[in-house]
Amino acid sequence: LIADQSHPHFDPDIEGPLAVDTFAAITVGLEDAWIISFTLSPAANREHVLYSLSTIRHAIIGKLQQLDVEVELLRVQEIQSSLFPRTMPQFPGYEIFGRSQPIEAVGGDVFSFVTLGQDILGILVADSSGHGLPAALQARDVVMGMRMGLEKDLKIVRVVEKLNRVIHDTSLSSKFVSLFYGELERNGNFIYCNAGHVPGLHYRKGTFTPLAKGGPILGPSPDARYASGYIFMEKDDILVFYSDGMTEAHDQAEEEFGIEQLKQVVEKHREGTAQEVTEALFSAVARFAPDDPLRDDQTVVVARRTSEPGGG
User: What is the rounded average pLDDT for all residues in the chain?
Assistant: First the structure.
């Protein structure tokens, strides 16, 4: 809008005290919530002014949209951060540590712990397909769905099968999720279900056992069936859970970091704490693939038994 004293929108009660003879105004914001006015010289070129106003309006609208996205992103970051443990669990007889590193502000990787009484600790690692906001929202739903199912005292396999049906029915583009969930008991029993996730590893005295028993990735088939696996943890045994962003990291020669290098790092640091093993894995991948253009979210959770069976 460009108006002078002859324009019906010119209000002498407003413009008069300001000594304004000619002004321009633009509306910006959602549903034109704001009006911005500019004082003009009576000799101003109308076409130039209209072009400038249009440019200013688009710039302001773009900035407001960017701010809206940033605010929403901060909200999602808050939601996702609430899924990660603020502190590592203190579980008698074990050291436990986890770390996750997204490639964007939010990511599809998530890990969480579920306390099921004094003697059982649930360990969850999930990887939602894709990156960014959709993947982060899907990862949130996985964690919440697992927690709700476990609170109802359902068996691991039943919870996973129900979660699979829920994910299949979602309309999100990133509706494929790999999940590893296991329950660690103080006496050393570890019962797990692997739903299409990279197999966790059980390390004992130089030997690695992949934890692959379970079923397909969550989402594609609503009728998928899952099974549970079992191992026993002895003193100094180590459990390593991770996402494929670790093993699939590429160096400049397009070689993958791979499972064998991951095992070598665990073997080398087998006497370290759970945190030391975790940090060693991240450091090794960072050195191997510092400039990987296909870099994915990365997650590692390590559990180490520190006491003899029956020793608390």
Answer: 84
Taking only Cα atoms into account, the Rg of the chain, rounded to an integer number of angstroms, comes to: 28
Residue-level pLDDT at 295? 74
Cβ 131 vs Cβ 124: under 8 Å? no
Q: How far apart are CA 109 and CA 254, in angstroms?
A: 23
- 97 vs 25, higher pLDDT: 97
What does 70-85 look like in DSSP terms, one character per residue?
A: HHHHHHHHHHHHHHS-
Distance CA 107, CA 297 (A): 6
- Cα–Cα distance measured from residue 217 to residue 243, given in angstroms and rounded to the nearest whole number: 13
Q: How far apart are CA 135 and CA 25, in angstroms?
A: 42
Write out the E strands in 118-275: 120-128, 177-185, 189-195, 200-204, 207-211, 214-215, 229-232, 238-242
Q: Look at the block and give the residue holding tokens 């594609």.
A: 220
pLDDT at 45: 72
CA distance 23 to 5: 9
* Sheet strand arrangement including 22-28: 2-4, 22-28, 34-40
Check if the beta carbon of residue 230 is closer than 8 Å to that of residue 193.
Answer: no
* Residue whose tokens read 């379970």: 214
pLDDT digits (tens, 9 = 90+) for 7-27: 676 667 665 565 566 767 777
pLDDT at position 305 is 97
**pLDDT at res. 58:** 78
| Pairing state between β 189-195 and 177-185 | antiparallel
Residues 6+ apart with CB under 8 A from 77: 105, 106
pTM of the model: 0.75
Exposure string over 31-40, b if 16+ CB within 10 A, otherwise e: eeeeeeebeb
Q: For the chain, what percent of residues have pLDDT higher than 70?
A: 75
- Tokens linked to 110: 């998530």
> How large is the angle between the packed helices 46-83 and 132-151, nearest 10 degrees?
30
pLDDT for the residue 294: 63
Stretch (H or E) spanning 37: strand 34-40
